[in-house]
Amino acid sequence: MNISTKIEILKGDITKVTVDAIVNAANTSLLGGGGVDGAIHRAGGQAILDDCRKIIARQGGCKTGQAVITTAGKLKAKFVIHTVGPVWTGGQKDEKVKLADCYKNSLKLAVDNNCKTIAFPCISTGIYKYPTNDAARVAVDSVLEFVSNSDKIDKVIFVCFDDDNFSALGGVLHQRAV
Length: 178
Known about the structure:
Radius of gyration: 15 Å
Number of domains: 1
Strand content: 15-25%
Helix content: 40-55%
Strand order of the largest sheet: 1-6-5-2-4-3
CATH class: Alpha Beta
Mean pLDDT: 95
């Protein structure tokens, strides 16, 4: 089987996707914010915030590139995996490594929690200003590497809110699948 058949790209609202785990492009505080983070917290409700507060009490938030898991509250998913993407500062501060870590650590957490399906937003391409095409390459390469070395994930869905990210991810996936 072509490994890229495990990967799908959708344009839409990640809070409406039915998967085992939805990934949240969180901030280090885990307390919600704008963009995807705010949408997931609003749609999932208080239970997500309550779990985030327990994580904060235990470890003080989440560092860039790392991931933590909570309930999904009112979402269709079982879990929300919160990961903190890097802020783009020109590529000289290990942004690529930190972004790849977001995908790898989220996938590892999904496997550790028996999740077979997972949906990712476009991490760091919004307010954190990571260049869309570069972020798409990191996202697809990180996911392809993980799923080619693990049979624990059946489907990875990239859910894009806008045309730019949708086109960038589609282009990179097509290149990698050829």
